[in-house]
């Protein structure tokens, strides 16, 4: 099996790192939800050696993630654990308490009930003062930030009616109910955002 590769990950990893290097500067243990190909985990782990970076995904993606991890051999990036948003999160064992969470391009792929469960998981599992970073496209006041996002949303719904670009207002309500306070909403390349929250 060849390593999986995402061009979007390759394009956005540097701009995301520029922000993560600041917001995760005092963190120790990051849980990544939906590690996908594993590219982000490897890149961020290489450039933030002070962090333990725990990858996670559904089992179908573990082989690809491990190919990236095996090639780079980073002691601070952990092999993927299974996190299914429909189930209780098996938090990493024998490690420091998780004090940060990162996820990219997940909330518009999963169904809305799973988005709700994602925030439930944050409420139940993350420590007070944990930092949460969510990357992806969002709508504001019901409007897309670009024509390309509108087209992308149409494509998403055509593929899976339960997916789609989410309204930021609905996301912020869920975040608030999970004890999260929005610190920053960064405008990113390719019409994406990077939301940074702190858990109270």
From TrEMBL:
SUPFAM superfamilies cross-referenced by the UniProt entry: S-adenosyl-L-methionine-dependent methyltransferases
InterPro entries: DUF938, SAM-dependent_MTases_sf
Pfam families recorded: DUF938
PANTHER family cross-referenced by the UniProt entry: UPF0585 PROTEIN CG18661 (PTHR20974)
This protein's name: DUF938 domain-containing protein
């Amino acid at each position: 099996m060849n390593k999986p590769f995402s061009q979007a990950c390759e394009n956005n990893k540097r701009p995301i790192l520029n922000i993560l290097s600041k917001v995760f500067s005092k963190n120790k243990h990051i849980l990544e939800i939906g590690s996908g190909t594993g590219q982000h985990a490897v890149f961020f782990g290489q450039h933030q050696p002070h962090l333990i970076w725990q990858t996670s995904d559904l089992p179908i993606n573990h082989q690809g993630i491990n190919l990236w991890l095996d090639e780079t051999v980073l002691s601070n990036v952990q092999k993927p654990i299974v996190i299914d948003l429909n189930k209780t999160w098996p938090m990493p064992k024998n490690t420091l308490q998780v004090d940060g969470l990162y996820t990219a391009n997940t909330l518009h792929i999963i169904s809305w009930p799973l988005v709700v469960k994602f925030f439930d998981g944050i409420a139940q599992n993350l420590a007070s003062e944990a930092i949460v970073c969510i990357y992806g496209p969002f709508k504001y006041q019901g409007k897309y930030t670009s024509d390309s996002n509108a087209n992308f949303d149409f494509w998403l719904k055509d593929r899976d009616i339960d997916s789609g670009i989410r309204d930021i207002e609905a996301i912020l309500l869920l975040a608030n109910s999970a004890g999260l306070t929005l610190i920053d909403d960064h405008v990113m390349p390719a019409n994406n955002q990077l939301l940074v929250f702190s858990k109270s």
